[in-house]
Amino acid sequence: MSQPDMIKELLLAQDQDGKLSEKQVKILEAAVEIFSEKGYAATSTSEIAKKAGVAEGTIFRHYKTKKDLLMSIVTPTLTKVLAPFMARDFVKKVFENDHNSFEDFIRLLIKNRYEFAKKNLPIIKIFLQEIAFHEEIREQYKAIFNEQVKKKFFAIIEHFQEKGEITDLPPTTVIRLSITTVIGHLFTRFIVLPNQDWDDEAEIERTIEYIMKGLRKDER
Question: Residue ranges of the HTH tetR-type domain (predicted)?
């Protein structure tokens, strides 16, 4: 089975702590595929075992519970795959560019996250579907965001506030409004209505317009 780039990265990340057996690789591949299609709660370990071509007991020899199996996918994705990506690529491309306007920054942010989600959809679907239900995932994500992104995001907001381009709301509020809108767009696009006849370019521009109307400084 051809694996998306992130699944390959995930398996490499897992192997840093010791070589995975062939059966473990098959279990992880099957779990990623079924979790992304059906969600964690609706997936049984028997389904994963059948898809992986192993006995159900084999799963429990490697992972004590279904939750352990989920975390074995999400944890290295966040700490060993997403975190380095955010540090090397995401932050460099999005936060360390010289943006002519806050609108240009938001456009680059949305398009970057859209391409990333599209390229790595199975893992991203699991992350977006499960983050609301698992405190461990939320805490790991918050730690990565605070370490890698928060200060640079604050600096960009304050820069365009000083230029008078966006409203003088607290930077944490601007971040909340911007990120929830971007994540909401991606969640709807790839999870809620993935089969909708999307005009992605037009929808991205509408999302940008929505954010900017809320944040643009009142000239009155």
Answer: 21-81
Structure tokens at 185: 């767009």
Cβ-based neighbour number of residue 125 at 10 Å: 20
The full set of domains in the chain, from first to last, is: 5-62 (1.10.10.60), 67-215 (1.10.357.10)
Residues 6+ apart with CB under 8 A from 157: 102, 166, 171, 174, 175
What secondary structure does DSSP assign to 28-58, as a single string?
HHHHHHHHHHH-STT--HHHHHHHHTS-HHH
Phi, psi for residue 216 in degrees, rounded to 5:
-65, 140
Q: pLDDT digits over 96-128, tens only?
A: 788 999 999 999 999 988 988 887 777 777 777
C-alpha span between 30 and 9 (Å, rounded): 16
Mean of pLDDT values over 196-219: 91
Lowest mean pLDDT among 95-104, 121-130, 175-184, 193-202: 121-130
Q: Strands, DSSP E only, in 101-141?
A: none
Report yes or no: 10 and 71 within 8 Å, Cβ to Cβ.
no
